[in-house]
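Q: What would this chain look like folded?
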Amino acid sequence: MIRQDNILLIANLASAELAQKVADELDVTLTEMICRQFADGERYHAFPCDISGKDIVIIAATPDDSAHQELVDLIAGCRFWNGRTVNVVIPYLGYSTMERAKPDSGEIPKGITRTRQIYRARPDYVAFIDLHSEAVLHAHAGEVRTRHLWTEHLAARKIIEIGVEDYVLVSPDYGFSKRVARLAGLLGCPHTAANKDRFDVDQTIVGQLSSTVRGKTAIICDDMIRTGGSMLQTVDRCYQAGAVNVLIMATHLVLPTEARSRFQEKGIDRIIGSDTYPGRYSDDLLDLYSVAPLIAEGITSLFIN
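A: My prediction, written as structure tokens:
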């Protein structure tokens, strides 16, 4: 049994703000790592206290190479200094869309290979939030306990809070339609899916869409927005099918500046999402909810069970 007073909560730099929210939810102190960067680019990390025998929770999104390596270093450091257990929550997993390689392509499926790097650092437990593919959950030899945390209840609450009426949830492809169906079940609303085909790494074609959206507000839902290409095509298909308004919802808002501009140019005035991706905040376009309660609940459940 893990005691709450034995928890040591830390984070990589990318997830420091989210980790503080989780600390507030759990009523524990966020332990800040000692970090420096040397002139040659090497980075220094040190624990500010004795972690031997502690049950350590690391909250660490991996949006870039540096954040990924920092997480691996933190896990390895916890093992080196004899942490009792090492438990990891990854709000956003970088390279998560690269979970497989086409035959004879020579591609590196980094969603799998990088997740294996995390597992090989020997954490006891790793949780992910709204994965693009659950394949990464099984990219280890059975020695790591994994869990997939879903945001549906938080997303449903957010939709109710904003007060939109007479709406239909839309999946941009059939692959994501089961997730959208679960969310629609929580909200008691209809849902439909567009037909999407991928012909290159960041290139897709979105085909026709059901007339279920006619006369209604369409809320297009996906796990993440990167370039926004397929989302924007789905926006067009919604209007062509008779939607009177279109909103966007995605858990992970990668959303580079040029993608954001493309949505605004298309007339989209609200993108609903979470704070899993570092540096995203509510503003005149983005309307965010926090996953801190979900992470805190997952940590509590882990320690109780």
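The CA atoms of residues 194 and 209 lie 5 Å apart.
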